[in-house]
Amino acid sequence: MELTLAILLGALFGFALNRAGATNPQSIINMLRLSDTSLMKAILFAIGLSSLVLFSGLALGIIAPAHVSIKTAYIGVFVGGILLGIGFAIAGYCPGTGLAAAATGRKDALIFALGGLAGAFAFTLSYGWLADNTFLFDKIAGGNVGLAATGNDKYDALIPFSGTAIGIVQGIAFIAIAYLIPTHILNKK
Amino acid sequence: MFKPVLTWPLGGALLAIAFVCAILLVKPIGVSTQFVIADTAVWDVINPDIIITDENAKSGYSSPNAYLNKSGGKYAANAANPLNYSFVFVLAMMGGAFLSALLKGDKPQNKDEKTMPAVWRNRFGDSAKLRYTAAFIAGFLVLYGARLAGGCTSGHMMSGMMQTALSGYIFAAGAFLAALPIAIILFNKKG
To answer: What does pTM read for this prediction?
Structure first.
């Protein structure tokens, strides 16, 4: 049953990435160099709409709070984000879109994925040293926190107010930003 | 049925359906961990001592490697049994993208585009060697960074921010703070 869901949900996600244009490095680079922000709008809209539905679903008891899974916040999240951002801009791929793009026949995406396997392996080897000798894994604001309460008591809320309201406000804010960002900021034709 | 690439509200809505269905039925979407699982499954074939069956570990497995041994040997356990939800999800994601491309979705239109996008070609020329070298280094940085951060664009940015996770916001700040200026410097014509 779980593997059937993995196949259906994975295929849906891969299909959606392709139809949103996220498997095309041209769309990603154009988004990052601010010459065509359509994909950024799609991503912001997706986050906003997902927030709206998630927090409504949690409030109505349709989505189980146990399915909420908030990742820990620590210094390495920011540093790792920067490293990822550098490669993201050079290649026009991130881990998910790189694999999905390779599946659509892009050879540079396949090479990117091989580089990714090497990078993941290098991290696996260096984690022990980093954990013992650096402050990269020091938590920020307690670590397991969200802005909004989700009903899952493993995670604390930063804003002491109705989680449903905050989730819905965040959702509307992201959707509004998606609409308001100009499509062509730099390199206007 | 669909245009090759949807307008952004439709593309965004389709992505939202995928993210919401995943959290409704199982758990939030994530991808980058599976690079470690793939590496480790191969590593275990070359060196079987890297994954050890261990009754005392929470997952039933442990490893002499600190990362694979983390969280009760969770990664060691998943690499020992790659036919688990998260790994199959990523394989199916590739299948879904392949299927979409086959059904008139977005795919490289010719041999040139299979090698590199036009925006790269216009800036750095036709050399496939240069593009592949850059793609390999970029892939290395992206996955090293994603594992250091504990997630990638899917897990931290999309899944994380939809749940209002602080970590999602911190990750997105780092990623875009680096990616925007570098893309602008690399690809926007000067003057």
So the answer is: 0.96
